[in-house]
């Protein structure tokens, strides 16, 4: 199978569930922003020096694939659940417990991994806004927006931990 299919040459793309939608649809913007964030997470993982951070980033990249599958579907199947939210909150708490208290604003860029994590964080915030815009027109699981909110928090905590 080749990389190009020519099915998108006229401005549409296929969803995970088979429907065709415009490439500039809110749904495509939403999962495209998650895809972009996942790429920045990969960049952060490539730059990261701490094994705990590398492992955690890789783990959340896998969950990001589930998140994209859910956003690229018009079915009611929920790939992201309360379990994912509970897990990410536990991870945040674990890393945060290893950090000194935050006493000032942080300027990104002390390390390459930290900078990439901060770009991932801001891209995830955009994805969250795109998902909320989608929610105004179509049904979106509440778990998706909550997960995105926590995921951006995790990127912030991982950035701080990596830069210790």
Continuous helix count: 5
Query: How many beta-strand segments?
Result: 2
Mean pLDDT: 96
- H and E string: EEHHHHH
Helix content: 55-70%
| Shape designation | globular
| Strand content bin | under 5%
Given as residue ranges, the uncertain stretches (5+ residues, pLDDT < 50) are none
Strand arrangement, major sheet: 1-2
Radius of gyration (CA) equals 17 Å
Alpha-carbon distance between the two ends: 46 Å
User: Largest sheet, described in full?
Assistant: 2 strands, antiparallel
Structural class: mainly alpha
Describe the fold and architecture.
The chain starts with 11 loop residues before the first strand and ends with a helix. The chain has a two-stranded antiparallel ribbon. Helix 1 runs antiparallel to helix 4, helix 2 runs antiparallel to helix 5 (142-162) and helix 4 (112-135) runs antiparallel to helix 5 (142-162). The chain contains 5 helices and 2 strands. The chain is globular, with a radius of gyration of 17 Å. By secondary structure, the chain is mainly alpha-helical. The chain has helices at residues 26-47, 51-71, 82-96, 112-135, 142-162, and strands at 12-14, 20-22.
Compact summary:
The protein has 164 residues and is mainly alpha-helical. It has helices at 26-47, 51-71, 82-96, 112-135, 142-162; strands spanning 12-14, 20-22. The longest helix has 24 residues, at 112-135.
Topology:
Elements lengths: L11 E3 L5 E3 L3 H22 L3 H21 L10 H15 L15 H24 L6 H21 L2
Antiparallel strand pairs: 1-2
Helix pairs in contact: 1-2, 1-4, 2-5, 3-5, 4-5
